[in-house]
Every structure is written in C-alpha cells, then in structure tokens.
Specification:
Blueprint: H1 10-22, E1 27-30, H2 41-45, E2 49-53, E3 63-67, H3 69-83, E4 88-91, H4 98-113, E5 123-124, H5 130-143, E6 148-151, H6 154-166, E7 174-178, E8 192-195, H7 198-213, E9 222-225, E10 228-230
Parallel strand pairs: 1-2, 2-3, 3-9, 4-5, 4-6, 6-7, 7-8
Antiparallel strand pairs: 8-10
Helix pairs in contact: 3-4, 5-6
C-alpha cells in the first residue's frame, strides 16, 4: 500500500495519482480535491480500478463511499431548532468542495422545512484561517444576533469554540459541529457533533476496490454511510 497527501490541491491530486499509475498499481482510493477526475478516464478504460471516498467524482463514473453529509447537517440544524433556536449561523469551508455544498444544503433544507427564511448574513463560507473564523463568529453571534451556530468542518468547530470562549459566550451560544473532534467530551460544555465513521468508510472502500480488482463488473455506486448525532451539551444550550 502506498499513500500520498494532496492538501486540498487539485493539481496535487492529479499529479500524485498519475505518479502512482506509472508505478502500475492495480487500484486507487482517492479523496477528490478538485472538481474534475476525468484525467483518470483513459487509465480506467485500460483496467485501473478506482474508488473515491468522502466525495463523489466529477466528470467520471466511479464507486464512491461518502458520509451522509446533507442528512447529517439537516439533523444537526433540526436539533438546534428543536431546542428552540431560530437564528442559526452556518460556518463552512471552501465553496467548491462537494462535502461543504452538501452540508450547506442540509442547513438550508432544515430551515426551509421549519418555515424559517434563510438569513444570508448568518451564512459564512470559504473560511480558511483562524482570523477569518473568528471574524465570522463575531459577525454571526454579535452583529447577527444568532443564538446558535452550526460549524460544518472540524477545524472550524475548534476555532469557533475558542472564539466563543474568549468572548465569554461558550455557555450561552449553542453549537453543533460536523465531524467529531478530539477532547470534545472533556470540554465544558461538551461539544455536540454529527460524527462520521472513518473506519467504516475506509474499510468499505477497500472491500469495494478489492472486489473490483477481483473482477466485479457491476454498475458503479455511491454508498452513503450514516452519521451519528452525539449530544454532549453545547448543542443543548437554549436560546437566551
């Protein structure tokens, strides 16, 4: 087994994949960083087996194993709605990433089904740096008067908690994050999250790839793995 990181750079994804193909690997498991995987089409036609994890391939047919991003986000936001919140902020990372698009749509769906109009001033995306996240939190909970926040990525969750703590709001602003974070159960309050199961995703992707290498020629599929809402305290804080 050979592994290689791409750091969310589409060019790194392509270059690393092509290097591995030159080494005559039988198959690849890829977390897509870009929005075009058609560069694999020729090798796929020649017999290369490819399985995508976390995100679905674009401009190429292939098996994929992904978390229930949209449904998980819907569940997180709906949980905050059930606690009594109606002004819920959304913090997400890069707009072009498929997982972010799905999670944002889950946020929109939950508000729509609750009869709440989306307030775009409470939606912040393309957050890369700690400073951008801090400014987004300030804008949402101070200027936008949101009483709850849904953070759609684990690093954003961590910085959001740090910022809320610095503002003295960590026990008065509700927060649910997508993806679990280390020590989430040790903080006060504990961090409520929608948890993915990377072990199941990775194991299932390997099984599919090995099956394809062994000759499975059934139609490609996208397999959606359920997520789990873990209530620890931060998502159960009622509106002020």
């Amino acid at each position: 087994m050979i592994s290689s990181g791409v750091d969310e750079e589409p060019t790194h994804e392509r270059d690393n994949a092509l290097v591995l193909i030159e080494r005559q690997v039988d198959g690849l498991i890829i977390v897509p960083a870009g929005d075009d995987q058609s560069y694999l089409m020729k090798d796929q036609q020649l017999g290369l087996k490819v399985v995508f994890v976390d995100r679905i391939p674009q401009l190429l047919r292939g098996d994929a194993v992904v978390s229930d991003n949209r449904g998980g986000s819907y569940r997180a936001v709906n949980h905050l709605l059930e606690v009594g919140h109606t002004r819920i902020g959304f913090l997400g990372d890069r707009d072009h990433i498929w997982t972010m698009v799905e999670r944002r749509q889950g946020y929109f769906d939950a508000l729509r089904d609750a009869g709440i109009r989306v307030d775009e001033s409470l939606v912040r995306t393309n957050l890369h740096s700690a400073q951008e996240i801090r400014e987004a939190i300030m804008g949402i909970v101070v200027e936008g008067k949101a009483s709850a926040v849904f953070t759609a990525q684990n690093l954003i969750t961590v910085e959001s908690i740090r910022t809320l703590r610095a503002l003295g709001l960590v026990e008065s602003i509700a927060l649910v994050g997508f993806d679990d974070i280390e020590t989430a159960d040790l903080l006060v309050p504990g961090v409520t999250v929608v948890a993915q199961d990377p072990t199941v995703i990775g194991t299932f992707a390997c099984e599919i790839l090995l099956s394809r290498i062994d000759g499975d020629s059934s139609p490609t599929q996208t397999h959606v793995i359920p997520v789990t809402l873990i209530q620890r305290g931060s998502g159960e804080i009622p509106p002020r």
